[in-house]
Design a protein that fits this description.
Blueprint lengths: L5 E3 L5 E3 L10 E8 L3 E11 L17 E7 L13 E9 L2 E9 L23 H6 L7 E2 L7 E6 L5 E15 L2 E16 L10 E8 L3 E9 L7 E9 L20 E8 L3 E15 L2 E10 L2 E12 L2 E13 L22 H6 L15 E4 L3 H7 L2 E14 L2 E13 L8 E8 L3 E9 L4 E6 L2
Antiparallel strand pairs: 1-2, 3-4, 3-14, 4-5, 5-6, 6-7, 7-8, 9-10, 10-11, 11-12, 12-13, 13-14, 15-16, 15-25, 16-17, 17-18, 18-19, 20-21, 21-22, 22-23, 23-24, 24-25
Length: about 450
């Protein structure tokens, strides 16, 4: 199983660290203002709903993958001019990140822009901290894993009439009242557009959210559209009983970024007397998934291939692959025995060697010692018929023709009964921002396939 990093909660118990932790006793207090519509600093207390929690939770409780946060301005010693607010925002933890599933609250102040096409039954508001966090970004609110190059598009609003394009722009040190000493935050910048609302352009603009691992959002800045003098909404975390933690590495060891290209050399002295040179490119990308193409440059195999990969919290997964090839060499056969020969896979590209066996190709946040197994069931076993274990060996500096890289090493020991060429030990080196830079597959028939990145 892949390792999960534990973290200590405020009461000393152990919980899974995350970008939005929600232990039962968690509390946060935010203060927010709007430069035009709410110039009075307004404090809101946020808590986690429990089964016996009264309004606004109304019995909403924690589950293994979902939770509801409740906020209120009551009892916060706000200025009488500050708007009163009470509401909830519900979330689900998914392999693609944190998803907002629902929300409710009292109506926004009457002086705020109307964020719907009509006043009647308008379910949109930006009159609270969490409304500014989930605005236009519900599925997901935060895409995970948070890696260099991460971007996603999503919608929000009561009628899904608010669209956002979201980019992780890196980490930075930040201070807020809750953390007067700098803490590391992941910075998410969103371009938000809303069309057709009476309150346009208030629903559009640039929003930046700073997320601290182990805490959640610590600052929000929403620069609304409208030119000089346009409103700016700002929210900061003033106190919390959650502990800021160092975030997992944002190194992207298999980047799915449109336009990324490279060329590999594949050799196997036993079965490939002449090196096979093939090039790849990342062609289509959407919300953590991508299509990659690979084609021959020189060598005994003429191939055009396309592959689908996706990056989620459980790692980089190969979800499909298709190739058309003609070869001057005959490779040993691959299994599994359960499939007829015309449905079995073949090694015709470096990606075939890399994805062979079982998923994931590499964990989302690889750490030395992480391991996972290929078992005798499921989709991967039906395709490959391979069992075994993959282990992250850690970082290693490696030199290939394309350069010198500090690469994450993954070793897989695999067994395909009855097919020595499909059994053996594969070692793969993945470099941040480049992906696979080297692969050595010591096959069970004694031959060795070596793949290196040329450029």
């Amino acid at each position: 199983m892949l390792a999960i990093v534990p973290a200590a909660t405020a009461d000393g118990t152990t919980a899974t660290a995350s970008w939005l932790p929600h232990p039962a006793d968690a509390t946060w207090e935010y203060q927010w203002t709007d430069s035009v519509y709410n110039t009075t600093p307004t404090k809101e207390k946020v808590t986690v709903c429990q089964a016996n929690t009264p309004s606004p939770c109304n019995g909403q409780a924690l589950s293994p993958t979902s939770f509801t946060l409740a906020w209120t301005t009551q009892g916060e010693n706000n200025d009488p001019a500050a708007p009163a607010s009470i509401g909830t925002a519900s979330f689900q933890e998914d392999s693609l990140g944190i998803i907002n599933t629902d929300w409710s609250s009292n109506p926004p102040p009457t002086n705020f822009p109307i964020l719907c096409a009509s006043l009647a039954s308008c379910g949109n508001s930006l009159a609270s901290t969490y409304y500014n966090i989930i605005w236009g970004a519900r599925a997901p609110t935060l895409f995970e894993p948070v890696l260099q190059g991460t971007n996603w598009s999503t919608t929000g609003g009561a009628q899904n009439d608010v669209a956002s394009s979201n980019d992780y722009v890196g980490t930075e040190q930040i201070t807020v009242p809750a953390f007067p000493k700098p803490v590391v935050a992941a910075k998410i910048r969103s371009q938000i557009t809303q069309a057709g609302a009476l309150g346009d352009p208030y629903g559009s603009g640039i929003r930046t959210v700073w997320w601290v691992y182990g805490v959640g959002p610590v600052k929000v800045e929403f620069d609304h559209a409208g030119g000089t003098g346009a409103p700016v909404t700002t929210a900061v975390l003033t106190s919390t009983n959650q502990t800021a933690l160092a975030p997992p590495s944002d190194a992207n060891y298999f980047p799915l970024q449109a336009g990324l290209k490279g060329t590999y050399r594949w050799t196997n002295p036993t079965h490939l007397k002449k090196p096979e040179i093939e090039s790849f490119s990342v062609d289509q990308v959407a919300n953590g998934s991508a299509q990659l193409s690979m084609k021959s440059v020189t060598g005994p195999i003429k191939v055009n291939g396309a592959y689908g990969f996706t990056t989620r919290l459980d790692g980089v997964t190969s979800i499909w692959g298709t190739t058309k090839s003609a070869s001057l060499v005959t490779m040993p056969p691959l299994g599994p025995k359960a499939l007829p020969p015309n449905q079995r896979r073949h090694f015709v590209t470096p990606f075939d060697l890399m994805t062979y066996g079982f998923n994931p190709v590499i964990p989302a946040y690889p750490v030395q010692g992480d391991s996972w197994k290929g078992v005798a069931s499921g989709r991967d076993f039906q395709i490959y018929g391979v069992t075994g274990t993959s282990t992250v060996l850690g970082l290693e500096t490696i030199t290939v023709p394309a350069g010198t890289f500090k690469a994450m090493v993954v070793r897989s020991v695999m067994k395909q009964p009855g097919f020595p060429f499909g059994s053996g030990t594969r070692t793969s080196w993945f470099a941040p921002g480049r992906g696979l830079v080297k692969l050595v597959f010591k096959h069970g028939d004694g031959s060795v396939s070596t793949v290196e990145l040329l450029k």
